[in-house]
Amino acid sequence: MRPKFAQYLPILDWGRRYDRGALTNDLIAAVIVTIMLIPQSLAYALLAGLPPEAGIYASIVPILLYAVFGTSRALAVGPVAVVSLLTASAVGQVAEQGTAGYAVAALTLAGLSGAFLVLLGVFRLGFLANFLSHPVIAGFITASGILIATSQLKHILGIDAGGHTLVEMAGALLAHLGEINPITLVLGVATTAFLFWVRRGLKPLLRRLGAGPLLADVVTKAGPVVAVVATTLVVWALGLAERGVAIVGAVPQALPPFTLPGLSPELVRQLALPAILISVIGFVESISVAQTLAAKKRQRIDPDQELIGLGAANLGAAFTGGYPVTGGFARSVVNFDAGAETPAAGAFTALGLALAAVALTPLVHYLPNATLAATIVVAVLSLVDLSILRRTWAYSRADFAAVAATILLTLTLGVEIGVASGVVLSIVLHLVKTSKPHVAEVGLVPGTHHFRNIDRHDVRTDPTVLSLRIDESLYFVNARFLEDLIQDRVTDGCRVRHVVLMCSAVNEIDFSALESLEAVNERLRDMGIGLHLSEVKGPVMDRLKTTHLLDHMNGRVFLSHYDAWCALARAGADTKAAE
Amino acid sequence: MRPKFAQYLPILDWGRRYDRGALTNDLIAAVIVTIMLIPQSLAYALLAGLPPEAGIYASIVPILLYAVFGTSRALAVGPVAVVSLLTASAVGQVAEQGTAGYAVAALTLAGLSGAFLVLLGVFRLGFLANFLSHPVIAGFITASGILIATSQLKHILGIDAGGHTLVEMAGALLAHLGEINPITLVLGVATTAFLFWVRRGLKPLLRRLGAGPLLADVVTKAGPVVAVVATTLVVWALGLAERGVAIVGAVPQALPPFTLPGLSPELVRQLALPAILISVIGFVESISVAQTLAAKKRQRIDPDQELIGLGAANLGAAFTGGYPVTGGFARSVVNFDAGAETPAAGAFTALGLALAAVALTPLVHYLPNATLAATIVVAVLSLVDLSILRRTWAYSRADFAAVAATILLTLTLGVEIGVASGVVLSIVLHLVKTSKPHVAEVGLVPGTHHFRNIDRHDVRTDPTVLSLRIDESLYFVNARFLEDLIQDRVTDGCRVRHVVLMCSAVNEIDFSALESLEAVNERLRDMGIGLHLSEVKGPVMDRLKTTHLLDHMNGRVFLSHYDAWCALARAGADTKAAE
Fold first, then answer.
1. Residue A279: CA count within 13 A, CB half-sphere
2. What is the enclosing helix (H) or strand (E) of A490?
3. Which of A160, A208, B92, B557 has a Cα at 20 to 30 A from A460?
4. Which of B132, B429, B448, B476 best tests the A interface by mutation, with the highest count of A CBs <10 A?
5. In which residue ranges of chain B is pLDDT below 50?
6. B511: nearest CB among A395, A488, A538
């Protein structure tokens, strides 16, 4: 057992064992990740509608705090595409882009999200994130990727256009199509094409040219940096900014400032729901990558402590000029592959970015927005995976419906409605599925003690004994189904004298189902029919014993269904002979 | 198989076999129910905030239509207490009591409710009513009983006071306490006391005096009629109406009029949700009494056809000056006990009430409202059953929480919020419960092929084989739980070489759980550990076969857990010897 204090500070665990070997590995990983993060941070800030430095700031203190409180050895925390989109959508509803109120609202969003995550973690409520099913998450990420890519087209075309849904964006783009800036368009399309080629074609080419795998990897990762440097130089040398190419412009040359999130009740009320959504989505994205990487080294992730780590990171972002952050998939994998051994790698990355913030920011003055947009488009298109539609369709129509609804509604009505509908739909479909459970009438497989479905197997039955195997927990959603089912099977004229419910797959009987069983028992008694149970599980039986059902039951509880058969079936003698 | 047409018209079924014996029994039942319904109809109209004749009208055409479309032989349809309360609450939000708009809105509510019920029935969606768990219904009915009784105090005190929640009502009563009409108070209290005595003390007294059980029963049922006649005579003879006693006043002497519900989009929008709530609550109340009575005679209720029957009744109410109706518990039991054999008894009751509407209405002119209020108070207090709190507490904390929340929120925030919160809470608690399923590590019971929980039984295990029995379907809510659980059990240093999941109680594996299994499989492979499944159910296996999981699985699927043990356990030789 770890002591209670250290439980909330995982740094005490790995910090004690830190050595020179780990230091070297962490430093190498930090350099590679820093190079990758500089353009990415600027780009995601652009996506969130914030000034470019917000992206850098959101990558410094949050990483440091996660290194103290987080449990993953490889997770890299910072601005990510989907959370940036959610930020733009939420903050865009309460303030105008470019105003001071917008930046303050983004801080508030990070603060609320951080507080919510910490609360979830302290009360160990991380399992609530599971209400987002995998298909809903996959659908949401895919739709978000499409939305994000579309939202960046305006920067590549060099026009002004807004909108938060696909329809709004397409409409705005079409309306301003006449204002395309041809130079921006050329720059944007060339950069996009270059980045796609780096991602798809460069690595195999380098390998064919004889480069080692590590070198090929580092060069490929540096692709966005090359694009940034090249387009900045072109814009600066040719004076393209004066010819209408939108550029990043002046970025303050400073360490992250101390900032205060706005906490007016009205702002908090408006941002509370989006903050919860961002927290949950961010946590789900982060925890799955953290677990995948931890498993590769037989390490352990504590989901509730992860909530605290991510919460601390977001609170840090709120007070240092950032915006909501989470563990990013791409950067974490890069960090892991580059050999990061402990969260100290993250701390070194933070140092690298702090250095960039004070030393490199003047250099990005002439960086065209189109380059950043191209970086985003290329990055997010890897999130788009429409195959989830085909795969869920093949496996389960309910899961397909949840994915399809999430994608459709996210694209047409926005991110909040899309993901909320997905969650509600997947819950309702699950309840509907369990509301009509599979119930098999079973009979004895000759020569055994086993009972099987009479429709699938050649089994022995007795017209006076109705044996039903219920393949579902009994709870309110299907309680009445059981009443109807039994009433259907024992109406006028049938010869049934005993109904035996085989409960081997009944994991729970809730109060509604208990009352239904009592009602069934009374109705069967009025008909002169016995009600029996068999193979009731321990925990279920423990609970039934606290009630009057067993006392009033017009029948018995049998340990095995075979016991019930022997006691009740008329053909008892035959059965014995058949053994 | 019944023909398709007759399926929607159960009257064709029983109508063909109707004979003189059934006619006699139905007529007797109709007389008794009519005597009971006249004061009740007036009283419930008062509760719903409508003129008294609305209660009579709501009891005529709806009963006739239910007789044609309904499947219960004994259900008596008409105004009931809880639905009247819901009507007052819903209509009170869109119109002022006593205005023409109020009556029209009540018609609209009945029309929407009828249409919704018919739709549910035609699309066979009656199971959706099951989302209301028994504890939520019990809590709601109890809280409604308290609300209704409280709402009638103003009539017994003779003051003007409003309010839809307990707090509002208590405040309004206290504020007007100075305006109590002493004569009304005496009348009201005396009538309430008399009715309580009739209900509790009269029947045993009559039996002791030598009356037969049937006579004692009929006299007891006539109690409210006696109270109505006596107090009407007192008010008329002593001229109490001039001394401030509120009376029913002029009631039109006519058959139900043809009316049109208001269908303005605004009104429909405002009443749509309350109409759905009224439909579901009414259906749930009605179906449970119908099924209980049907079972006593081995008859069958078709829940979806019941929806059509109740829907037709409500549509009838909407076009004949009524308001929302459903199958009442008390009157249906009276109808059944009095010997009703077919829905024709209902039709005869409708005739009796039609006769009352044209002949008896002038006689109730001097009937004091306090008498009707006393009738309601005595009737609804039998609905109040706080023992549900104790019973659910003893059985399951989750069910207790749902009841307690429903009662508390219905009383304090109103009926709609109360019942909605109960539904949401019971669904969430169910999901939370299944999110952390019972998982037992199992071992072999020596000398058998059975595997049991290692914590409860003396069993044989193998340190290299981890056998886990999962007592829950695997779906999105607990998918990640499984990942965490397995990761927890096979971290650094343990000797586990094989993980076997025993799936005998797994009734479903959804797409999220499938992906979790794939992730678990990959992580275990990274650790050099095998993942195996045993005792997978037929339908679950059918679905798994459509996926790649089985191809990629770093292990096998075993028919029985014993097969898995024999194949994987190092102590295979010992096991054989132990047999």
1. 33
2. none
3. B557
4. B476
5. 1-3, 571-579
6. A395
